[in-house]
C-alpha cells in the first residue's frame, strides 16, 4: 500500500461504472492537478505517471457513513490518520465519523479539529456530532453551531436517545438544519446487561442476551416521531428481520426514514460466538443475529428497504479485547474487509449487481447526508475508487491497516478487491 501526492495521472484501460444507471464504459482517464481533464480511448500519458486499470472498474469514490476514528481521546485504538489509511485500503475516499470520542463531538471546535486532521489524507472525513451534550441524553447539543462547523448529522451513537421528548426536539431542530438524526436503536431496559443476541445460542452458552425486540421497539418509536415531526430518522446498523419490516412499512407511508446495514450483519451469525469459542472479536453492538435475520438483511438490500452499506468500524486495542467475553468492549474493525464481504455475500450470489452494491457504498450515503456527489466527468475533481468484483483472496493480518486488529475475518475468504483510490490529488495504490 502506497500513498503519494500525484496531481497528474493517467488511468488506463479501466471500465467506468456509473452506479446510478449501471452503465459501463471502457476508457482512459487523464487527471491534471487533481481534476479530470480528459476521458477517452488511448490517451497519451505525456510523461505523466500511469496506472493500468485493465479489467477493473472505476467508480466515484466510496463512502462509509458509520465509522469510529476514536480521535480525540482514544488514540491508542485508532487515529484519524490510521483510520483514513484503513479506509483507503478498503476503497473508501470518504467516511463519516461517530461522536463517541473524548471529548465527544458536542462542540464546534472538535468538529473543526477532526476536519483539519484529515486534510492531508486521501480520505474526506465528515464528523457526525452529538444529539445531546456529552451524549448524556439530557439536553440538546448546540446543533446549529455544530452544523455550521461542518457536522453532517447528529447521533449519540453507542448511547441510544432514550428520551422520546428529547428525540422529538432533536428531530424538529435537525429538520430545520436539513441534517438526519442517526439513532443507535436500542431500548436499554430490555438488554442493557446483554453481551450477544438473546436466543438459542446465548441460552446454550449461558451468556446474557440482547433481544431483537430492544432494537425493534426503539425503531418503532422513532418512526412515529419522524412521522409526527417530519424530521429525518436514520436507523443505524439495522440487524433484525422485524426491524427491516418496520422500516419497509414506514417508507411505504412516506415517512422520512432511511437505514444502513453493516457488512458483518449480512456475513456472519451469532453461531460464530460458539464456534469461535467465545472469541471477543465476535462481540459487537448490535450483536450478531441468527441466520433468519441475516437473510432479512439481504432481502432488505435487494428490495431497497436498506439504503446503504456501512461497517461500523470500531477499533479496540488488543489488551481491551483479550479479556473474558463479558468484560470485552463491543465492536470490530471493518473498513479493510467491507468490499470483500460485500462481493462474497451480496454480489456473487446475485443479491445486488455490482452497480447496485456500489450505489449503496457511494451514492446512498451522500444522499442521506446531503453531501455533494462526485462525478466521473471532465472538469470534476477526481474522486475515484478502482476495484473488481471477482478476485478471490483471503483476508489476512497484512490486510489490516487500522491501528487495532479486532476482527473475526482473519483467514476468511473474500470476493472482489479494492485496488486503488484517488482523491484530493492523492493516489493510494493497494497492490
Explained architecture:
The protein has 431 residues and is an alpha/beta fold. The protein folds into two domains: 2-57 and 378-391 and 413-429, Urease, subunit C, domain 1 (Roll); 61-368, TIM Barrel. The protein is 29% helix and 23% strand. The chain is built from twelve helices and 19 strands. It has helices at 80-89, 108-117, 143-149, 164-177, 200-205, 212-229, 241-252, 271-275, 291-302, 318-321, 338-347, 354-368; strands spanning 2-5, 9-17, 24-32, 35-40, 50-52, 57-60, 62-67, 92-97, 124-129, 153-154, 181-183, 196-197, 209-210, 233-235, 257-262, 308-310, 384-394, 413-423, 426-429. Strands 1, 2, 3, 4, 5, 6, 17, 18 and 19 form a nine-stranded mixed beta sheet that branches. Strand 8, helix 2 and strand 9 form a beta-alpha-beta unit. The longest helix is centred in the middle third of the chain and has 18 residues, at 212-229. The chain is globular, with a radius of gyration of 21 Å. The termini are close together. The mean pLDDT is 97.
